[in-house]
Amino acid sequence: MRIRSILVILVMLASSSFAQDDFPDPLLLVNRSHTQRTVLYADYYTQRVCNDDSVIVFSIVNTLLRVSEEQNDPELTNEAILLRAHYFFCNTVLDAGIILSELDAALRKAEERNSLWLRIRIESMLGFVNCNRLKQYEQGLIHLTRAANLMDDKPSSEYPLKQVCNYHVGFQLLRFEDYNNALVYLNKAAKVDVPKGMKDHRYQLFNALGLIYRKMNRLTASDSCFVMAKRFSEELSDSSWVAITSGNLGENHLLRGELNEAYPLLQLDAMMAQKNLDWGLASNSLALMADIRLKQGNTNAADSLLTLARKFAYRSGNYQRLHVVYPRLAKLYAAKGNALQAQLYIDSSLYVNDSLERATNSMRSARAEQKVQIEQLQAMAEQQNQERTRQIMLRNSIIVVLFLLMVIVALLFNRHRLKLRERQLKLEADRSHAEQRLDQAIKRLNALAYEKKKNADKDTNERSLSDGVQQLENAVILTDKDWRDFSETFEGVHPGFFVRLNEKFPGLTSAETRFMVLKRLQFSVKEMSVVLGVSAEAIRQMRYRIKKKLHLGKEDDLGELVRYV
To answer: Quick one: CA dihedral 485, 489, 492, 497, positive or negative?
Structure first.
């Protein structure tokens, strides 16, 4: 078992080494342009990559990545991405979904790495997978067209596959008989100057153009294109394509009724097709040669040619070839007088043409349905994008509005805070000023009291204690104007004091109110007696009376009580 495992590893290594020999040395690709690299590895992509297994291909991919890092050449990383994608593209065993997933991943990498040439190559592969494997024709054409259009303003010297990408679009459009659009891309491709070292596909381009012009019944233009295709084939020494283009020219001569000119050209095509074992192409040319012989009245020669044509058509397995053979067989049997056999081939011909027409219509319908589906998906995606954009704009608008509101609120708050601060400062200034005025008023009050005290009746202190309260009630040391001025000054320092005092202790007389005011100012009994012009005992009597009115005990302090008014 161990020996078998070792042998397997050796075979894998040997295969890997062989593949490395076929793929150009990665060091030769370092710091080369895309075109130079494409020329160097073109043969490997066209001949080997689709046949090598994953071990070999991924070994080359890893080598490219390693050299890319060592040589600081990011383009080799792009080449590694392309090679991996190409391996999956060529794989006919893997599920198409896996292949699409790999190609989509490669396309995202191309976009992330901002590599236009890599994106073009991956778009082209996606086009072929969709068209040929998944039968998603419209999606495939979208990818192929995108690949070609990305190079519209790019020089072919930098994008060596510009010709072939446009050709692929034109050829796919030709399959759907979309001749006008096919002409656009094929003519674009025909004008591309192919870089030195790259294969020139103009022989195929002009051959396709010739087929389109024939379908459009423009035989002169068709002839010119086939002649150009033949000339390019001769320059390449490609005898197979020389024969193919000759056969197409022969068919144009046949359509014009130029039988002698048509026959040798078709004969050359038939002989080369048989040599290349291209039985379908051989069948087509032989059937057209038989048609010429029938027109010339040579039924025996036509019979031999059609026998071979029918045989090769069956051998090719290409059902489409019968639509050329069966009508000629019907003509042959009609010429021989075998009406029944002729009718059978006419019916067969109609059946084949109907089948081919249904197949073509089915393909067109599929493309049309796919186009509608794609347009619907695009419309939904556009609606989603618009809704997402609307949501983003709405969100941003809300954010902006909220931000502006926050700014406005902040400004208003700051303005309000400044106003409050100004008001507070003003109040503090007013309070300070009022306190100064109150101090001055108290000083004036004391001065006035002492002055009036000197001039008062010296017998005041001898009055009875029972008359003390009455003395306080009738005290006139302070005039009403003096008290009013003093009250205003006091109210400025203690705003609302008189209202609160009256609310808290209703029923106080004016004398009792004056007592409470002086108590609030922390006047002593002696100071009160001087200001009010009564004896100290009268002041104490007033204090007792107020406590009794307010239901206070002896231990209760009127100074503390009035301080919280």
So the answer is: negative
Q: Are 453 and 476 in contact (CB under 8 A)?
A: no
What SS3 state is found at 548?
A: helix
Q: How far is CA 376 from the centre of its chain?
A: 18
CA distance 242 to 196: 23
CA–CA distance, 387 with 349 (Å, rounded to integer): 56
**Structure tokens given for 18:** 């062989």
Return the minimum-mean-pLDDT range out of 234-248, 424-438, 457-471, 519-533.
457-471
Are 190 and 209 spatial neighbours (Cβ–Cβ below 8 Å)?
Answer: yes
In the DSSP assignment, the letter for residue 73 is: -
How far is residue 174's CA from residue 393's CA, in Å, rounded to a whole number?
A: 45
Say what angle helices 219-235 and 202-215 make with each other, to 10 degrees: 160
Give the other-Cβ count within 10 Å of 48's Cβ: 16
Quickly list DSSP for 291-358.
HHHHHTT-HHHHHHHHHHHHHHHHHHT-GGGHHHHHHHHHHHHHHTT-HHHHHHHHHHHHHHHHHHHH
Confirm if 309 and 328 have CB atoms less than 8 A apart. Answer: yes
For residue 504, give the amino acid letter. K
Instruction: For residues 38 and 31, give the distance between their C-alpha atoms in angstroms, rounded to a whole number.
Output: 13
What value, to the nearest 5°, has the Cα angle with vertex 532 and ends 530 and 538?
90
8 A C-beta contact, residue 262 and residue 277: no
Tokens representing residue 142 in the block: 């979208």
Distance (Å, whole) CA 192 – CA 117: 17
> How many beta carbons lie within 10 A of that of residue 303, not counting itself?
17
What digits encode the pLDDT tens for the residues 213-227? 999 999 999 999 999
pLDDT for 78: 94
Cα dihedral sign, 473-474-477-479: positive
List, for residues 358-372, the tens digit of each pLDDT value: 777 676 666 667 666
pLDDT in tens, 496-512: 888 888 888 888 888 88
| Count of other CB atoms within 10 angstroms of residue 241 | 19
CA 8 vs. chain centroid, Å, equals 48
Cα dist from 253 to 219, 362, 479, whole Å: 9, 32, 142
